[in-house]
Each structure stands twice: as C-alpha cells, then as structure tokens.
User: Fold this.
Amino acid sequence: MKIGILGAGFIGRAMATLASNAGHEVMISNSRDPRTLISTAAAIGCALGTAEQAARFGDVVVVAVPFSSIAALPVTALDGKIVIDTCNHYPERDGRIEALDSRSTTTSQMLAAALPGAKVVKAFNAILAKDLETDGKPADAPNRRALPFAGDDAPAKHVVSGLLDQFGFDPVDAGTLADSWRFERAKPVYCIALDRAGIAEGLAAARRDVELPHGSWRH
Assistant:
C-alpha cells in the first residue's frame, strides 16, 4: 500500500516509521521545502515530497498537522482518498472554535467538511507519539494496547482497522465521525494505555461536557 504523510512532526514521523517498517511505500511531507526532510526521510527509509505530492501518492493519506492548519490541505489531491485524521484541537495552540466550544460538531467532522471528496477516518490521535513507536505488540501478545477509530465509510474503516492491527494495536470501532468526540483531547481514553475492554469502557464513560484536567494525559 502507498501511504502519504502530511506533516512531519512527532506523530507524522512516527506514522511514517511504522508504515515503512510494515513494508508500505511511504512519502512524507511538510509545509515547508521538502528538502528540509532529507535526513528524516533517509532515517525512516521513505520518499519525500510536497503536501500535494504526498496526497496524490498515497492510497491512504495521514493528516498529522496542527488543527489550525487544515484549511491549507491540498483538497483536490485528496479526493477519493482514505484520509486518517490524527488531529486534535488544542485551544491554546489553535485558537477557540465556536462550533467545538458549543459541541455542535467534532474535529473529524470539520476535517471531513474541509475535504468533501475524501473518506475520513479518525484514528491514531489518542496516543502520544513516543508511545506510538514503542507500545505496539504482535496480535497474540497479552495486554496488547488498543486504540479507537471512527468513520462514516465502512470500507475505509476496514482499511484503517487493518493498519491499526498491523502497527501493533487492537482496533476498537468507536462509531461514526459524529461519535469521535468520545476519544478527542481530554476524554477518558485520550493518550491512556488501555486494552480493548478498557477502551470500550472509557468510550462509554465519556461525557461531552466533561474534560480531564489539562495535560493530565502527558507522562
């Protein structure tokens, strides 16, 4: 499978590494000159390009940019693509957004609205980048960490579920993009190492108007 990575921060690099190690063809990009990624791409063993090139390259495209940057994504190049949304909204970084403050939408629904031709699946957002690279285990390993995912397109969800498993995590279907608030920032399963049962319990326990103390998930 060809996987394009939009964003070369911690999550973008971790996703590129996992995908490359799993045998996929990978192209990573950033918002600047892709030549700034020469050493990063060489270390990972992947190709580099512009965001437009990475979007066109991938059968699956990972969006790993600050939430405030989604308006700059290459919309046309992402038409028809499976887009993995790893984004989280941090008000102190991205600014306040009334639709999120009023809980009338989710971050993934906002991304899907910005990319109307894409098949958006929320995944890999509820884990720290350092854990993403170290916590994956084989499918038969005891106490395997689980991660939630959500989307509106069943075939796209199937592909992303397979990648979660391939990258070392038990996939837990959390429903539609409208349900994805249950594993957004500051919810019970956000960046907490849990198995499949723990994720299911945490998703069920989540309340739309209740957030964990800021930064409590960092360790």
About this structure: The chain has a mean pLDDT of 96. The beta strands are 2-6, 25-29, 47-49, 60-63, 82-85, 119-123, 146-151, 170-173.
